[in-house]
Prior knowledge:
By secondary structure, the chain is α/β, with parallel strands linked by helices. It has one domain: Rossmann fold (3-Layer(aba) Sandwich). The chain has helices spanning 16-27, 39-51, 66-80, 103-131, 143-146, 152-172, 190-193, 197-204, 215-226, and strands at residues 7-10, 31-35, 56-59, 85-88, 134-139, 177-184, 237-240. It is globular and about 50 Å long. The structure holds nicotinamide-adenine-dinucleotide. The site of nicotinamide-adenine-dinucleotide has 28 residues, from α1, α4 and α7.
Amino acid sequence: MQFENQVALVTGAGRGIGKAIALDLAQAGADIVFTNRTKSLAEETRAEIEALGRKCLAVQADVTEPEAVEGMVAQALEQFSTIDILVNNAGITSDQLFMRMTPENWRKVMSVNLDGMFYVTRAVIKTMVKQRRGRIINITSVVGFTGNPGQVNYSSAKSAVVGFTKSIARELGSRNITCNAVAPGFVDTDMTRVLNESQRKAIMDQIPLGRMGTVEEIAKAVRFIASEDAGYISGTVIHVNGGMF
Ligand SMILES: NC(=O)c1ccc[n+]([C@@H]2O[C@H](COP(=O)([O-])OP(=O)(O)OC[C@H]3O[C@@H](n4cnc5c(N)ncnc54)[C@H](O)[C@@H]3O)[C@@H](O)[C@H]2O)c1
């Protein structure tokens, strides 16, 4: 129960990595606020969190809409009075070879993966500054470090998440707020289930451990960074990728 009396806000926790993070933090005692866009998935996640004996607020908010984000944070503070841990997890891909990449492919990905992180962090930070305590954990990706064909938009956004993380860490360290990123390699979720057999094989060939990661393996890294044990870690990236980078 290392997070007893703490509140964690996780974006995009209706499924995949975000859901695993929310459940793992709840298992360790945190009450959870999360965003999702699909109502039925949000209900499932909420029921699972409450079954662990934790309180949970699920808000249908799109992280690309600043007003919706401000409203979601206001609702969270009204119910819980505090937000101790923020996990910026919501993310999308819109893959296309660069020669065919449209402004829409580019903007969609920047908007969710980067603008969304800015809006949510901006809305939460005032509370963390006031309480002089906070943990911010941003989900980036191995492709932000290696690049990937077909993902110029996504890898650019994920590299930018690293700059965002390091600058927040420098700016807010004096307020006892840490900011770190977790960079998953390839993880078995809906995001990677769209890959075809030959894309999967090409990826497997790059992973020394010879398998994709699980959502729980990413959640455990996030839990560590959120914990007291990681109190002196800030401005860094934890890579969880089976040795591929
Ligand atoms: N799966 C992987 O291999 C992998 C690898 C590296 C990084 N990541 C990153 O991990 C995070 C989670 O990915 P995942 O694999 O669980 O994907 P996923 O598609 O299963 O889940 C993404 C979640 O984000 C939510 N979301 C998307 N757009 C949103 C928006 N505008 N507002 C609010 N919520 C929104 C979705 O509803 C969903 O719950 C993403 O940031 C992704 O880039 C994933």
